[in-house]
Amino acid sequence: LGIVDTHCHMWRIELARQTGLTPEFKPWFRTFVPQDLAEASREIGVKMCVLIEAGSTAEENGAMEQMAASSEFTAAIVPYVDLENPKLVEELDKWQENPKFRGIRMGFEGHPDRDILARPTIIEGLGTLARRGGDL
User: Cβ distance 82 to 53 under 8 Å?
Assistant: First the structure.
């Protein structure tokens, strides 16, 4: 199988600008797609990657899903999902239709609410995940 890079972020610059990517992030201030990583990592034996969310919008998730669909280099995707979404079950059901879907991510690092993990809505969302078990 070779090496699988299990934590990769990729983006379309026009979408990434919405969530904080600015020109100060040179050389990353550009569109970055699976083919870019495949070329850059060929020499060290990386054969596939797992795309991890690179933003928190539906548009960014859609771009990630399109990148994965058009790339054999992309083995799996882990999209952003808001655990407080009242339609969390429906969103997870939708993601399960994608054969490359493997999990979800909602980052809490740097969140302005230091107690976000104690919110009843977050606890409810985590409970939803737990009840689904391996069937996110």
Answer: no
Report the alpha-carbon distance of residue 80 to residue 125 in Å, rounded. Answer: 13
How long, in residues, is the chain? 136
pTM over 0.85: yes
Please name the amino acid found at residue 106: M
SS3 state at 39: helix
Torsion from C-alpha of 94, 21, 66, 111, nearest 10 degrees? -20
In this structure, is the dihedral angle defined by the CA atoms of residues 37, 38, 43 and 44, taken in order, positive or negative?
positive
Cα distance from N-terminal residue to C-terminal residue, the chain = 25
Query: Exposed, middle or buried by CB within 10 Å (0-12, 13-18, 19+), for 32?
Result: buried
Are the CB atoms for 107 and 74 separated by under 8 Å? no
Confidence tier at 20 by pLDDT (50, 70, 90): confident
Strand, helix or coil for residue 65:
helix
38 and 4 in contact (C-beta within 8 Å)? no
